[in-house]
Amino acid sequence: MAELGLEEAGEGEFTKDGSVDLKGNPVLRSNRGGWRACSFVVVYEVFERMAYFGISSNLVLYMTTKLHQGTVASANNVTNWAGTVWLTPVVGAHIADAYLGRYWTFMIASLIYICGMFLLTLTVSLPSLKPPACPHTSDPNCVQKASSFQLGIFFLALYILAVGTGGTKPNISTIGADQFDSFDPKERAHKLSFFNWWMFSIFFGALFANTVLVYIQDNVGWSIGYGLLTLGLVISVCIFVTGTPFYRHKLPSGSAFTKMARVLVASLKKWRVSLPSDPKMLYELDLAEYSKRKQFSMGSTPTLRCLDKAAVKTEGPITPWNQSTVTQVEETKQMLKMLPILLISLIPSTMVAQVNTLFVKQGNTLNRHIGPHFQIPPASLQGFVTISMLVSVVLYNRIFVPIMRKITKNPRGISLLQRMGIGLIMHIIIMSIASATEHHRLNVAREHGVAETGGKISMTVFILLPQFVLMGIADAFLEVAKIEFFYDQAPEGMKSLGTSYSMIPLGVGNFLSSFLLSTVSDLTKRNGHKGWILNNLNESHLDYYYAFFVGLNCVNFVVFMIVSRLYVYKADIYEFGDGSTVEMVDQYIVVQQ
Predict the structure, then answer these.
(1) Which residues contact 441 (CB under 8 A, 6 or more apart)?
(2) 152 FRET partner, CA 20 to 30 A, in 89, 161, 391, 591?
(3) CA 115: distance to chain centroid?
(4) Pairing relationship of beta strands 296-298 and 369-370 according to DSSP bridges
(5) Which string of b and e fits 205-220 if b means at least 16 CB within 10 Å?
(6) CA within 13 Å, CB half, 479
(7) At what angle do helices 148-177 and 185-208 cross, to 10 degrees?
(8) DSSP string, 432-456
(9) Maximum distance among all alpha carbons in the chain?
(10) CA neighbours closer than 13 Å in the CB half-sphere of residue 508
C-alpha cells in the first residue's frame, strides 16, 4: 500500500500528487497545470526537436562531403555522438531528482545547449574551421582532410550539445507529465494521451527539420541551415520560460542512485537475517514524516523479497547504509524490475540508428530527382518516417484504442508491453524488407556497370520508401510505449530517472551500432575478402548486414515474450485525508470511499 500524507484544504482544491510552485508552496488545481501549461512545453519540444533532428539527420552527409570521412568513420562518428546524446540524460535526471529539481536543471542545460549551437554554427560557417572543398565532394579518398584542430572544434560543439541535451531531455517530458495529477481521475485520463501527443510534437518538429531545413542545408548553405536551427532553439526556450507561471513542480527527492545503493548494501549486510512473516514488522517511517517531507509512503510487495531484508529491524544504531525503509526498498524494486525491459530495448534502438546513417547513405546512391530540376536531399527520406509516425499516432489514438478498449476493457486499448511487442515485430519486418531491397539495389548496380565505380544508380530512391514508412509505424508503437512505460512504472520520487530509462537504450543502441558496424566490417575483410561494408556501397553487402539484424531481432523478440509474461505491473494504493483511496495498475483507476 502507498499512502500520501498531505492534507487537503478543500475537496478537489489542491493537487493530491505533491505538486508545488517554484517557492515550494502547494498549488491550486485550477491555477496551474493541465493542458494550458502543457501547451508551452509541447511547443518548446517542436522547436527543440527541429534543432536536434536538423543536425542529426544530415550529419553523416556533412562528415562525408565536407569533412571527407569514409562510410564506417562517418557512420560511427554519428552514432557515437547520438549515443552520448541519449546517455547524458541519466546524469541530467540524477541532478534534477537529487539537487536542482526538473525546472532549474532544464534551464541551466538549455543555456549550455544554446552555446553548443552557436559554436556549431561557427564551425560550418568560418572557412578556417573546415577543410577546403574537393573537386568531387562525395569522394571519401579526397586528400583535403580536416585538420585535428578543425575536427576538435567541430566535435567539441557537438558534445556540448550532448551535455545540454542531457539536462533538457529527461526533464522536459517529465515536466509535461507532471502537469496532470495522477490522483484525479479526469486529469489522469488526460495523462493517458499525453505521451502520444508528446511524440506527435517531437515528430512534427522532426518532419520540418527533415524536409525544409535539410533542403536549406544541401541547397542554400550549411551556415544558414544551422543558423536557423540556433534561432529556433532560442525561440523554444523563450516559449518555455513564458509558461513558467502556469507550471506545477515536484520537489527534489534525493539521489535515486544513492537510495538504491543503500538498499542493496543494507540487504547484503543482512543476507543471513530471516524475514518476518508479517510485512508490517518491517521498518517504516510514520505517515506524519512523509507528510512533512511532501513525499509518498509505499507498502511492501511480494516481488524481489530478498531486498526486503534491508528493511528488517535490527539492534544497534540506525544509519542509511544499514537500515532502509519499506518505501526505499519498494522504490528500488520498481527500478530494478524495469531493467530487463530496458535491455531488450537495445536491439530495436540499434535498428533506429541505421535510419540516419546507412539508410541515408543508401539513398545517396539512387536517383533522387522529381522532375527535371528538383532533387530530394538524401536526409529528407527520414521525413517519411516522421509522416508515417504522425499518421499512425492519430489513427492509433482515434481508431485503434477505442476499438481495443471495447474488447479488452483496458483504458489504453492494449497494455504498454503489448504495444511494445507489436513494435518489435515491426522491426523484424523492416530489416527483412531492407535486406531484400538492398539485394535488389546491388543487382541493378552490377547490371548498369556502376558497382566498381560507385556511380549513381538510375533506380528511383522511392524503392527505399517501405523501410522508412514502416519505421515510423514501428515508432508509433514501440517508442511511445517505451517512454510511457518507464515513466508510469517509475516510483514518484524517481520519475526523471524513469524517463531517462527510455533514453538509455537509444544511447547504448547507437554505441552498439558503432561496435557492430566496425566489428562486422573488420571480420568480413579477413582472409582476402572485400568485406560487407565499404566506402563504395555499390560494392558492399549491406543486404547481408541487414539480414544479420533480422536474426538479432528475432532472438530479441523471443526474450521479450518471456520477460513480458513474467513482468508484474506496479500496483499502488494511495490514501488521502478524506478517507478515499485511489488504486492504479497500469493506468487503471479505481476510486474507493
Answers:
(1) 362, 365, 366, 457, 459, 463
(2) 89
(3) 23
(4) unpaired
(5) bbbbbbbbbbbbbbee
(6) 27
(7) 150
(8) HHHHHHHHHHHHHHHHTT-TTTT--
(9) 84
(10) 14
Which residues make Cβ contacts (< 8 Å) with residue 521, sequence separation at least 6?
72, 531, 532, 533
CA distances to 161, 176, 177, 209 from 39, in Å: 25, 9, 12, 21
Closest CA to 347 of 420, 415, 419: 420
Q: Tell me the three cell numbers of residue 535.
A: 566506402
From residue 505, alpha-carbon distances to 201, 267, 481 in Å are 21, 28, 13
How many residues can be counted in the chain? 593
Residue type, 533: I
Tell me if 180 sits within 8 A of 190, measured CB to CB. yes
Percent of the chain that is helix, strand, coil (3-state, to 5): 65, 5, 30
**CA-to-CA distance for 350 and 341, rounded, in angstroms?**
15
pTM of the predicted structure, to 2 decimals: 0.78
Q: Write out the three cell numbers for 373.
A: 530540376
Cell matching residue 293:
517531507
- Distances, alpha carbon 229 to alpha carbons 42, 46, 205, 383, in Å: 17, 12, 11, 17
Residue 295 in grid coordinates? 513525499
Question: Can you spell out the DSSP letters for 47-113?
Answer: HHHHHHHHHHTTHHHHHHHTS---HHHHHHHHHHHHHHHHHTHHHHHHHIIIIIHHHHHHHHHHHHH
Q: Under the phi-then-psi rule, with left for phi > 0, alpha for psi from -120 to 50, and beta for the rest, what region is 294?
A: left
Q: pLDDT tens track of the chain, all 593 residues? A: 344 333 333 345 788 777 888 888 888 888 888 888 988 998 999 999 999 999 988 898 898 888 888 878 888 899 899 899 989 988 988 888 888 889 999 999 999 999 999 999 999 999 888 888 776 555 555 667 788 899 999 999 999 999 999 999 888 988 988 898 877 778 877 777 777 778 778 878 888 998 899 899 988 999 999 999 999 999 999 999 999 999 998 888 778 888 899 999 999 999 888 888 888 888 888 777 766 665 667 788 888 888 999 889 888 788 889 888 888 899 899 999 999 999 999 999 999 988 888 888 888 888 888 877 788 888 888 888 888 988 998 899 889 999 999 998 888 889 999 999 999 999 999 999 999 999 999 999 888 888 877 778 888 989 999 999 999 999 999 988 998 899 888 887 777 778 778 888 988 999 999 999 999 999 998 887 888 988 888 888 999 999 999 999 999 999 999 999 999 887 654 444 444 444 544 444 333 33
